[in-house]
Specification:
Layout (H helix, E strand, L loop, with lengths): L6 E5 L4 H12 L4 E6 L11 H4 L9 E2 L2 H5 L4 E4 L3 H14 L2 E4 L6 H11 L3 E4 L5 H16 L5 E8 L9 H14 L3 H4 E2 L14 E7 L5 E8 L4 E8 L3 H13 L6 E3 L1 H5 L4
Parallel strand pairs: 1-2, 1-4, 2-3, 4-5, 5-6, 6-12, 7-9, 8-9
Antiparallel strand pairs: 7-10, 10-11
Length: about 270
Amino acid sequence: MTESAPGIVIMGAAGRMGRMLVQAVAESERAKLVGAVVRPGHDWVGEDLGHAMGGPAMGVTVSDDPLEAMARAQAVIDFTSPETTLEVAHLAAQARAVHVIGTTGFDDGQIERLVPASRHSVQVRAGNMSLGVNLLTGLTKMVAAALEDGWDIEVVEAHHNRKADAPSGTALMLGEAAAEGRGVTLAEVADRGRDGLTGPREAGHIGFSAIRGGDIVGEHDVIFAGQGERIVLRHVASDRVIFARGALRAALWGQGRSPGAYDMIDVLGLDR
């Protein structure tokens, strides 16, 4: 590891994704772990992070104070909750630290509240940090733009039984890409729930279906259904480590960038 390696703080370090992020940063030769934050009152507070995770000492004391943890950081990776992320965005802006946001479940008002912080720090927000999903997003936009009227678009996603939000952030990201390809706004055409006697499918709508069960990491299908044929674009995640690697890549990419709101398409240098 070089002396210039950026220091990174992990929010929600005790969670399933938080542990993956800790492992990814700890194993990296290009970054150093300088802080780990958990919710107030958590059993890990004050413990060495390595010991708390059941391994050897890591030299990082777990904290419940993000401000204190970020005092030594150049980046913070955040897969928590919308309200926590809004608080962290404010602190990242003060510290001029890169804020990588993998949190999902934002409403439109909360997304607007992230904007002021992005004027003072690099903010990378994506519903999914994996390379494959972001390639799928680009393909979805391209196919939606190429098809003529008469093709129905459905986004089907599956996740583990502990996921709290639906549709997933990735599903919404794919829906946005499809809407952009069609030259419409997703909010105007999204159909996010069907139950009972719904009548015929609304022409031009983009439908969403959510499956929850077991330990499914993440599966996303974008279905383009026409008369006599279908196109199905699919991504299957079998290991959460892909999200951790993508988030770390975003944190490193953001070093030295101008403040602003970015996403993984920017990080990966993919054409829009």
